[in-house]
Design goal:
alpha/beta, Rossmann fold, seven-stranded parallel sheet, three-stranded mixed sheet, 42% helix, globular, binds nicotinamide-adenine-dinucleotide, binds 2'deoxy-thymidine-5'-diphospho-alpha-D-glucose
Length: 354
């Protein structure tokens, strides 16, 4: 353990998709910080995502649930956190439609539990920061034109986005009511290594590999704005260090794709990588029943973070997608383990059954 870290940061949800990239970046780029990764290791969290940094002296993993108040109170009594980067959440829209309650518990109640611990612990708010990682889905659905700015009114339409909107409101309420130092960023769709193969891109890669149907909801005309996950992690580092307290930053790729066009592009890459005849993967595309309340289009206006903090994505979509496909092809065993549930025994081997 780092004997006298310059900062002690709590990162929640660090074993998940985006969280693992944020943890890695913070551990490697800030060796003078102590990074505590708190994660419950739900089906979406996996310590294999952090194997390359798990032995670093400035990194500690703790298993725990943000819905457990007494666990959090004990944690905050043991560590003096300078900042919290809060990513832990239930994140899959389709799961929220089937079972909204877990989304309320983790995304709303869990966030309030963390806010309360920070409020109690941070007597001098000036030196601290609670950074809430949120989503563009809180703004609702766009038509053919326009994009979400930080001033776009909230209009969440799925249980997932309603739970994230609720937690954003609570974070802002703690800023206005108690003076808690907070910042929020709302990001568009991420893609890249370590994403659980239930989301569109890794699910499609998985199914193409196994010559299984690629389910496209409705007519595939819904539009998402895709950002490579490492570019999001870089933006998070920047907002954490330079973001203005009480402010919101939209983060997005300026990279809109209709689902069906994106999947056709991916199919072409997969055919080449797998040495299959052109058109083989596209032949797996299957139009299925639409998602309930399916938002038509998301697009981010990232002018504020670009202008104020100088952030821009480092990856083009072609580069990011190529890197993503290469990662999934190299890590097919990861994909099989996380979808089979074997990662649970991986955890138990490493850390015991606690
Ligand atoms: P993910 O589903 O891959 O990972 C979530 C992590 O949180 C997992 O490691 C899980 O074990 C952990 N977790 C879940 N419930 C917990 C609980 N009760 N206590 C402690 N840990 C818990 O998620 P992701 O896609 O990496 O998203 C991370 C954050 O970024 C979320 O807050 C999400 O809303 C937000 N976000 C995601 C995207 C995206 O495209 N994936 C875009 C914008 C914002
Ligand atoms: O916009 C940010 C959000 O992006 C994050 O806040 C969420 O956590 C993240 O899950 C993601 O939400 P989406 O619903 O946009 O992502 P998903 O990968 O589930 O779906 C992307 C698009 O593809 C969406 O229009 C639904 C469609 N889709 C999805 C799946 C899983 C399909 O057509 N078929 C599928 O099998």
């Amino acid at each position: 353990m780092n004997p006298s870290p310059h900062k002690t940061l709590l990162i929640t949800g660090g074993a998940g998709f985006i969280g693992s990239h944020v943890v890695r970046k913070m551990v490697l780029d800030h060796p003078d910080y102590l990074i505590i990764n708190l994660d419950q290791l739900t089906y979406a969290g996996n310590l294999e995502n952090l194997k390359d940094v798990e032995d670093r002296p400035n990194y500690t993993f703790l298993r725990g649930n943000i819905t457990n108040e007494s666990f959090l109170e004990d944690l905050f009594s043991r560590y003096s956190f300078d900042g919290v980067i809060h990513l832990a959440a239930e994140t899959h829209v389709d799961r929220s439609i089937t079972d909204p309650k877990e989304f309320i518990r983790t995304n709303i109640v869990g966030t309030v539990n963390l806010l309360n611990c920070c409020r109690t612990a941070w007597q001098d708010p000036a030196d601290h920061l609670f950074y809430h990682i949120s989503t563009d889905e809180v703004y609702g659905s766009l038509g053919e034109e326009g994009s979400f700015t930080e001033e776009t009114p909230y209009d969440p339409r799925s249980p997932y986005s309603a739970s994230k909107a609720s937690s954003d409101h609570l974070v802002r309420a703690y800023f206005h009511t108690y003076g808690l130092p907070v910042v929020i960023s709302n990001c568009s769709n991420n893609y890249g290594p370590n994403q659980f193969p239930e989301k569109l891109i890794p699910l499609s890669i998985h199914n193409i590999l196994h010559m299984q149907p690629i389910p496209i909801y409705g007519k595939g005309e819904n539009v998402r704005d895709w950002l490579y996950v490492e570019d999001h992690a870089a933006a998070i580092d920047l907002v954490f260090h330079r973001g203005v307290r009480g402010r919101t930053y939209n983060i997005g790729g300026m990279n809109e794709w209709k689902n069906v066009d994106l999947i056709r592009l991916l199919c072409g890459i997969m055919d080449r990588e797998l040495d299959r005849d052109p058109g083989t993967s596209a032949g797996l595309i299957t139009f299925v029943k639409d998602r309930a309340g399916h938002d038509l289009r998301y697009a981010i206006n990232a002018t504020r973070i670009r202008g104020e903090l100088g952030w821009k994505p480092a990856h083009t979509f072609e580069q990011g997608l190529q890197k993503t496909v290469a990662w999934y092809l190299t890590n097919q065993d990861w994909m099989e383990r996380v979808t089979s549930g074997a990662y649970k025994s991986y955890y138990e081997q490493q850390y015991g059954n606690r």
